[in-house]
C-alpha cells in the first residue's frame, strides 16, 4: 500500500526552504500532496490560485523533485484533516526552522492527531534556509528588495513582474 503525505502551508509565496522540505518528503513517501491552505490568521499577499500556480511551476522546474510523485492542490473549506481523510493520507509533513516553529506547531500536531489520527513528521531544511520565511520575503519584496536568493526562479520572476514601475 502506498503512503501518502500532505505538506500543508500558506505558501504565500513558496520559498526555497519549502522546496527543500517538499524534496525531502518526496524521497521518503510514495505520494506527496502539497496543499495550499487558507490561513485566516494571516493577511495574504497572493490569491490561492497564484500560490498553486507558482508552486506547480517551482516543482516542475526543480530537477531534484520527481514531479509525477508530487501533486499540488488547495483547500479552503473545512479542516486540514478532512483533506487527509478524503485522499487517504495519514501523515502531515512540516518544515522546522527553530524552537519557535516547534512551539507554534505542537498544539496543531496534537489537535490533528486527536481529530483524525493524522500524525505529523517534521523535516529540517538546509540551515542555509533557516532565516527564510514567506512573511520576510513578502516584507523584503514589498520594500523593493531582491528576494531571488530566497525563492524559486518562478516566484522571483512573478514578483519582479508585479513590481510597480
Ligand atoms: O504556512 P503556514 O501559514 O504556517 O501554514 C499553517 C497551516 C495552513 C498549515 C495551518 O494554519 C493549518 O493547519 N490550517 C488548517 C486549519 C485546521 O485544520 N485547523 C484545525 C487543526 S490544527
Quick structural gist:
This protein is of the alpha/beta class.
Query: Given this structure, which CATH class is correct?
Result: Alpha Beta
Radius of gyration: 15 Å
What is the helix fraction of residues, given as a range? 40-55%
Shape: globular
CATH topology heading? Rossmann fold
Largest pleated sheet: 5 strands, parallel
> DSSP strand (E) fraction?
15-25%
Q: Helix count?
A: 6
Task: Return the CATH architecture.
Answer: 3-Layer(aba) Sandwich
Ordered list of secondary-structure elements with their pairings:
Elements: E1 4-9, H1 16-28, E2 31-37, H2 48-60, E3 70-75, H3 80-87, E4 91-95, H4 99-116, E5 119-123, H5 134-142, H6 153-161
Parallel strand pairs: 1-2, 1-4, 2-3, 4-5
